Amino acid sequence: MGTAIVLLIVACAVGLAIRSMVKDKKAGKSLQCGGDCSRCGGGCHG
Fold it and tell me: Which residue, 30, 23, 35, is CA-closest to 46?
């Protein structure tokens, strides 16, 4: 039972992280540029 609870918590954390990355991508942010695509010369938009 404990394993299932831990698995559920980890799955929720991963889901929230993916949701955050998708939201940032739609807002024009990128992990490669640290969130500031003006500094990477347009390499963020692929």
Answer: 30
